[in-house]
Structure formats: C-alpha cells, structure tokens
Amino acid sequence: MSNRPIEHFEAASTLAVVVSSNEPLLFLSEDQRVIAASASFCLAFDIDPATVPGVRLGELGNGEWAMPTLVSLLKATASGKAQIEAYEIDLKRPDRSTRQLVVNARTLDDGNKDHVRLLLAVSDVTEARAETRLKDNLVRDNAILMQEVQHRVANSLQIIASVLMQSARRVQSEEVRGHLHNAHHRVMSIAALQRQLSAANGGNVELKTYLTQLCQSLGASMIAEPDRLSIAVSVDDSAVDADVSVSLGLIVTELVINALKHAFPDQASGTIAIDYRSEGGGWTLSVSDNGIGMPAGRDAPKAGLGTGIVEALVKNLQGEIAMGDAGPGTAVTISHHGAPACHDDLSAAV
Q1: Domain extents for the chain?
Q2: What is the DSSP track for 327-340?
Q3: What's the CA gap between 102 and 119, in Å, rounded?
Q4: For the whole model, what pTM was predicted?
Q5: For the domain 205-350, what is the CATH code?
Q6: Which of 51, 56, 109, 287 has the most CB atoms around its CB within 10 Å?
Q7: What would the pLDDT profile of 254-287 be if each residue is shown by its tens digit?
Q8: What fold, for 4-124?
Q9: pLDDT for 68-107, tens place per residue?
C-alpha cells in the first residue's frame, strides 16, 4: 500500500496547525522557502498572506527578513548541527521603528530524513524590553534620589552633633554637660549607622564590616587614650536585613557607650569585646568588658535612658537579654531564636 495519502494527511494537518496558531509561526522547507505562515505572523508584521507561500524567507515583506545571521542559524538547524533557542534579533523596516524579536527554530521529524522541514516561532518583545528599561530607569532614579536624601541626612546629623558639642562647651553644669555629651555620642553613632546603610543600598547588611566600622566611629569619638582602652569586634560572616542591622547597631552603641562611661574609672587599660554569632536557627550578640563589673545591692546603678533603649530594641527583635559577671567585668548577651543566617567565622580588631 502506498504511503502518499498518509504523508498528504500529515502535511495537511501540519499546515492547519501552523495557519491557525495564535503565535507567529513560519513553516519552512530546507532551503528556507515558506510553506505556510500563521495568520498571527502575517498580522504582526503586516504581510499579505497571499504573497507568502513559496517565497524565500528573505523575500518576505520588503526583504527585511534577509538577515545573514538568521539564515546561517536556520541552515545549521536544518543540518542538525544547531538549534535556535531564544535568539534575539532586530527587525528593521523602512519608515518603521525597529522591533526586537526572539526566535526559536527546530526541525519537524516526519520519519523521512530527506524531507527536512523547519518550524520558526517568532515573539515580539519590543514592548516588554521597553517596560524593563523603564523600570530599570525608575530604580536607578530612585537610587539616585535616595543617595541624595542620605547625603542630606548625614550632613544634618553632623550639624546637630556640632551644635551639641558647642553647647556642651558653653554650659556650666557638669550634669547638663554630661547629657549633651551623651546626646552627641548617640547622634554620631546614628550617623555611622546611616553611612553603613547607605553603602548597603537597601539590601542585606554584612555585620562584620558594619559593626567594625560602627565601633571604630565610637572609639574615635569617645576614647581619648587609645593605648589605654580599645574595642575588639569578632563577627561571623552573617548578613541581615537593614532593619535588623539598625537595631543591632543601636544596641551595640548603647552598650559600648555605657561600658566606656562606667567600666574603667581607674584602670590603666581595658577592652570592650563585641561578639556576634549565628548558628542553626538563631543568633547571639554579646558585649562584654574586663572592667570593674556591675555594682550590686545599694550601689547598683538605676536604669537610665540607655538601658531603656536596649530593652526596647531587644523586645522589637523578639530576643532575650541577660547580664552577668565576665570575671572580671560585665557581659551583656542578647539571643534570638529565628531564621538562620549564612556564616563563616571571621574576626576584626578595632
């Protein structure tokens, strides 16, 4: 029995599928003559369907499909040496805007190796690319605006800090002067936080660099004798959300300020150690010193502004705070059980 009726039926079925497709399709012979084109292809590229059958690909329309690279890729596909997957081309037509296209091509196997047919699918991504560029431009513009805002914030913080220091020099009351100095230190620490966050560009913040530079700023503004007092930072390779980093930075700031003020009244030397570790499902932050330790009983200090700030921040982080004897000195530990963070042990000294 002859196979010609079956081959004729398969060809008719293929033609019907191609012509009725909602996607722009071309059905090509091995020598790149058009056997059929989908109505959507003709509509998308303003080609008269009656002019399509039998013409070469490069003769479609006004010859705009005669692209050497596309022709070469189709030849390689027909020979089995390549396959066009999401190849991007520009369709240039006289007096019309250039269209950005994505093409895919493959051979259709009907069991006859001498009967090579190609199916070429074309997608117009011009509008999608334009939307992507628009979004990228908006993101870039927003980033520029945010940098400008951050620059202005940094300048404002510096002005506030300067005003506080000038006021501290003028007042006669030691108590008021102390409060102004405390306010100055807090403003400077917030400025340091702001610089770190601006460098993070709104993404995750690497705590090692963040806390190290924060403590460098605190040491520069509060330690008059670096040979006597120092701050050491040991942090693993964790990265956290910007909001979390702000809270952690403020906690460290308050605890370091408190240690610098109270832990070393008469000692020749001392160290404040900051340690952060994330493991499993949580993290631990500790700030310890080798100073005189916390007075007990009637000599125990009353909770001040710094203590209230730390407790509020720890609560906001859903953490737990514990204070103990570091033998010598004092250790404050904040722990949190939550999502794990990637980490490798690293350390830095300030």
Answers
A1: 4-124, 127-202, 205-350
A2: SSSEEEEEEEESS-
A3: 14
A4: 0.50
A5: 3.30.565.10
A6: 287
A7: 898 888 888 888 766 889 999 999 987 799 999 9
A8: Beta-Lactamase (3.30.450)
A9: 999 899 999 888 877 788 889 899 988 888 899 999 998 8
